[in-house]
C-alpha cells in the first residue's frame, strides 16, 4: 500500500517540477521544442504505467521502481562533475530519455543512454530522428549485462538495484579508461569495490521523493 501511495505522490511531484522546468529552461527554444515533443509523446502513455506493465510481464516483485532525475538535479550533477562538450556522457538506465536530451542540449556533449524498457527506447529514438540529434543514441538492453560503451562520465541512479546487480555493473564500469568519472546516487561505488574507484566528491541533491547524497568517483 505504501508503494502505491508513493507512486501517486511522485506523479504529482513530477507535475509540480514541470512548472520549474519551464521557468528555468524553456527560454532555450531548441530544448523547449524537443522537451515538449517528448512530453506529448507520453500524453497518453504514462511512463510509470509503462514501467509497471513491463515489470509485471517479467514477474518482478517490485512494480514501482520507476523514477526520474529532475532536470534541475541533472544540471547540478553536470556542473559538479565539470561536464563539457569534450565529454561522452553515459546514462545507465535512461528511462524515457528526458535527461539525455537535457544534457546534450545544454552541455553539448555526446550522450549514450542504456534502457531496458523497449517502449522508452523507441520513443526516445523517435525524438532523436525527428530533430536529427546525431550526438545522442539509445541502446535497448539490460545495463547489468551489456558491455558499457566507452565514456568519460557515467551516471547511475540505481536505487532499486540489489547488491548483485550493482556488482555486475561495477564489473563493466571498472574496465572503462582510467579517470572515467562515475556519478552515483545515495551510495558510492567504493562501498563495493575499494580498489577500482577513487572517491572525489560528495554533495546533496534533490529528487521528488526528498534529498540525498550524490557521489563522484573515478576509475583507478
Structure description:
The chain has seven helices and seven strands. It has helices at 2-25, 29-41, 47-57, 71-80, 98-107, 118-130, 163-173; strands spanning 88-92, 110-115, 136-140, 153-156, 181-185, 197-207, 210-219. It is 42% helix and 21% strand. Helix 2 (29-41) runs antiparallel to helix 5 (98-107). It has 220 residues and is an alpha/beta fold. It is globular. A seven-stranded mixed sheet has the order 3-2-1-4-5-7-6, covered by helices on one side.
How many helices?
A: 7
In the sheet with the most strands, the strands line up as 3-2-1-4-5-7-6
What Rg is obtained from the alpha carbons, in whole angstroms? 17 Å
Q: What is the distance, rounded to the nearest whole angstrom, between the alpha carbons of the first and last residues?
A: 43 Å
Order of helices and strands: HHHHEHEHEEHEEE
Indicate the structural class: alpha/beta
Number of strands: 7
Show unreliable segments.
none
Question: How big a fraction of the residues is strand?
Answer: 15-25%
Main beta-sheet strand count, sense and barrel state: 7 strands, mixed
* Approximate helicity band: 40-55%
Morphology call: globular
The overall average pLDDT, rounded, is: 91
Amino acid at each position: 500500500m505504501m508503494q502505491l501511495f508513493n507512486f501517486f505522490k511522485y506523479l504529482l511531484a513530477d507535475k509540480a517540477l514541470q512548472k520549474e522546468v519551464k521557468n528555468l529552461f524553456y527560454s532555450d527554444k531548441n530544448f523547449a521544442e524537443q522537451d515538449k515533443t517528448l512530453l506529448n509523446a507520453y500524453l497518453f502513455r504514462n511512463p510509470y504505467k509503462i514501467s509497471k506493465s513491463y515489470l509485471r510481464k517479467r514477474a518482478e516483485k517490485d512494480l514501482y521502481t520507476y523514477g526520474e532525475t529532475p532536470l534541475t538535479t541533472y544540471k547540478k550533477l553536470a556542473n559538479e562533475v565539470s561536464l563539457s562538450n569534450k565529454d561522452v556522457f553515459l546514462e545507465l538506465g535512461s528511462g524515457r530519455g528526458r535527461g539525455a536530451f537535457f544534457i546534450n542540449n545544454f552541455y553539448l556533449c555526446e550522450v549514450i543512454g542504456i534502457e531496458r524498457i523497449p517502449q522508452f527506447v523507441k520513443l526516445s529514438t523517435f525524438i532523436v530522428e525527428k530533430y536529427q540529434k546525431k550526438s545522442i543514441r539509445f541502446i535497448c538492453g539490460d545495463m547489468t549485462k551489456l558491455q558499457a560503451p566507452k565514456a568519460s562520465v557515467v551516471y547511475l541512479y540505481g536505487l532499486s538495484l540489489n547488491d548483485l546487480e550493482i556488482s555486475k555493473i561495477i564489473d563493466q564500469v571498472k574496465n572503462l579508461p582510467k579517470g572515467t568519472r562515475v556519478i552515483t546516487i545515495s551510495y558510492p561505488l567504493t562501498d563495493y569495490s575499494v580498489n577500482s574507484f577513487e572517491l572525489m566528491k560528495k554533495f546533496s541533491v534533490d529528487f521528488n521523493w526528498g534529498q540525498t547524497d550524490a557521489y563522484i568517483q573515478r576509475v583507478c
